[in-house]
Amino acid sequence: MEAPVLLDARQLTRRFGGLVAVNAVSFEVRRGEIFGLIGPNGAGKTTLFNLMTGLTPPSSGSLNFGNQNMTGLSPHQVAASGISRTFQNIRLFGPLTALENVKIAQHARTRAGLWAGVFGRDKAEERRVELRAWELLDLVGLSDRAGEQAANFSYGDQRRLEIARALATQPRVLLLDEPAAGMNTAEKGALTSFIREVRDRFDLTVMVIEHHVPLVMNLCDRVAVLNFGELIAVGDPASVQRDPKVIEAYLGS
Ligand SMILES: Nc1ncnc2c1ncn2[C@@H]1O[C@H](COP(=O)(O)OP(=O)(O)OP(=O)(O)O)[C@@H](O)[C@H]1O
């Protein structure tokens, strides 16, 4: 039996002046899926993630997450609802340690949490936050470097730390924007099994934007292809790779 639909995007559209960055894009992501989003530079991939996470309001269209209509929610409300993301341009607090970075991400989960993060919270709660931060660092293989400044980490390690931060909000959906960017070959090789492990362990649904085609093809259950803001193909990796429209989009770019 197929898993239920968890994310349902309907006719999502975003215009910037005369440019239609995302043009009437509709797709469904099923619970537990690893769903890839590919397309040439400027195709609208990051804008679509921004629409899904409240950073950019859609010009029209809607996104449903389970029974909840997410359209028009703020990034904070989206995160609190259970959709978490990483960014193409890494957004860590460079001068802070790895452990501090994960702890702050947990405090940011709710406004009350952020308040407590700034003005202090009770000791038991603080211990829970600290323990969970250690668990997440352990999961991404960085617990032995918890006290090091994030700015000193390699790209690959910064991306892993970003994933730990995204998981700190206990999401049900994880959106990864180019997780392999800047990683070396060995790190890229390990990323596929790492993302699957994280999906299984936290019972997640994952969407991933990625330029590295072999990684996408190995990792994803299904792949959607954007070109000039339009969704030109959705399907299993092999059939998408054979699709003449997809081949043309890539050769033309
Ligand atoms: N805030 C904005 N204002 C104006 N134009 C924008 C804005 N954000 C994105 N765009 C434009 O929308 C289009 C899609 O950009 P987007 O970054 O979503 O593409 P992408 O597929 O993620 O590209 P890449 O693979 O290069 O990251 C581009 O033409 C871009 O210049």
UniProtKB/TrEMBL annotation:
Signal peptide residue numbers: none
Single GO cellular component term: plasma membrane
Cross-referenced SMART domains: AAA
Top-level taxon in the UniProt lineage: Bacteria
Pfam families: ABC_tran, BCA_ABC_TP_C
CDD domains xrefs: ABC_Mj1267_LivG_branched (cd03219)
GO molecular function, one term: ATP hydrolysis activity
Keyword terms of this UniProt record: ATP-binding, Nucleotide-binding, Transport
Domain named ABC transporter: residues: 7-253
InterPro entries, alphabetized: AAA+_ATPase, ABC_AA/LPS_Transport, ABC_transporter-like_ATP-bd, ABC_transporter-like_CS, BCA_ABC_TP_C, P-loop_NTPase
Name used for this protein in its record: High-affinity branched-chain amino acid ABC transporter ATP-binding protein LivG
Annotated organism of origin: Deinococcus irradiatisoli
